[in-house]
Amino acid sequence: MQPRQFARAKPKAIVIAARNAEKLKETEALALEVEPTVEIVRVPTDVTKEDSVKSLFDTVQQKFGRADVLVNNAGVSVGHTNVDMMELDDYWQNFEVNVKGVLLTTKYFLRLLGDATGTIINISSQAAWNEPEVSAGYCLSKLAIVKLCRQMSWRPNVSVVALHPGTVKSDIVPEFFWRFAEDTPALAGGTAVWLTTEEARFMSGRFISANWCVKELVARKEEIEQEGLCKVGMIGTVGLDQFK
Q1: Is 138 a catalytic residue?
Q2: Among 12, 63, 138, 215, which one carries the catalytic annotation?
Q3: Which letter, b or e, does each residue of 122-159 get, where b requires 16 or more Cβ atoms within 10 Å of its Cβ?
Q4: I want to staple 91 with a disulfide (CB 3.0 to 4.6 A). Which of 6, 79, 174, 223 is the partner?
Q5: Complete domains list, the chain, with CATH
Q6: Which GO terms describe its molecular function (predicted)?
Q7: Is 10 known to be catalytic?
Q8: What's the average model confidence in pLDDT over 67-80?
Q9: What per-residue confidence (pLDDT) applies to 114?
């Protein structure tokens, strides 16, 4: 996800982090095309390494005190094979980046945030609901992110949402899916910006797709809250409730 839509919202600053320093420069240039006055801070970071993530947030603290919004966008999709044929290191890399990386960045974001109001947007995928064994590593890692959002939603000052960015041409999307890639990075970015607003706070702990209509979501807010929609859970009656 490119930060162009966040730049258009004119924040005080945007901190961008990734392993590839050259891609960070390209991302900075794209954001500055939209809003030349926004401050962009580039921090090369490996989200699977705690020392690297801590250094990132040390930089945030030194320059700004804290961050208001965290977008966990780092992700991989590797090891696409049946379980009996897998290379465990490849399979587990999905969890190292997609889950461990989210946990580490969230840990240090929350430490700086304290009691202030903030938003965490975890980039998940509709693959969280997919069932093919061949993609189990990636799908399970994205499902874990959705569940994590639900588990963290008790915090009154933090909105935590799992966002499927739509089907976009990217390094992580296999080429045979590109013919279905009708969504854009701008759509995902715009949805992410909306998720930082007070209007969207009812979506905390829930899953949202960038190609859903946010106006319809707002119109159905009461239904979504009362019926527990867009959450991970078990469907069925268990325990004493099954005898009622």
Answers
A1: yes
A2: 138
A3: bbbbebbeeeeeebbbbbbbbbbbbbbbbebbeeeebb
A4: 79
A5: 4-243 (3.40.50.720)
A6: oxidoreductase activity
A7: no
A8: 93
A9: 97
